[in-house]
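EI: anyone free to look at a 122-residue chain?
SC: sure, send it
EI:
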Amino acid sequence: MNKIQKFAYVSLTVTALLMPVLVLAALPTPTPPLTGSPVTLSEIETRITQVAQFLIIVGVILAVVFIVWGGITYMFAGGDETKAGAAKTRIFNGIIGAAVVLAVGVILQTLSGLIARSFFNV
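SC: here you go
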């Protein structure tokens, strides 16, 4: 590398490092927010419940799509045992996926009831 290239690299690096000083940039001083209310535990619990319900619904929809896709593939297998076997596996995996998602939903509801101390109330 010749001297001109070294000088160019060094000058570009120095220019990049000194850019805030060269353009007289000043960082703003952070100020605390003056409005709003603090986040409560019930709001966090509500958001977690909403996200969990959304994910459970999406999981069940995906499982149903896989079951339907497997059924259509099974219908169009046309006697081919490899395609029929793949379709049966897809249907079985869709059923297992739906069962797992619903089981997770039951577990989340049970834990939510235990944490909120409303599970054993009559």
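EI: The chain has four helices and no strands.
SC: 👍
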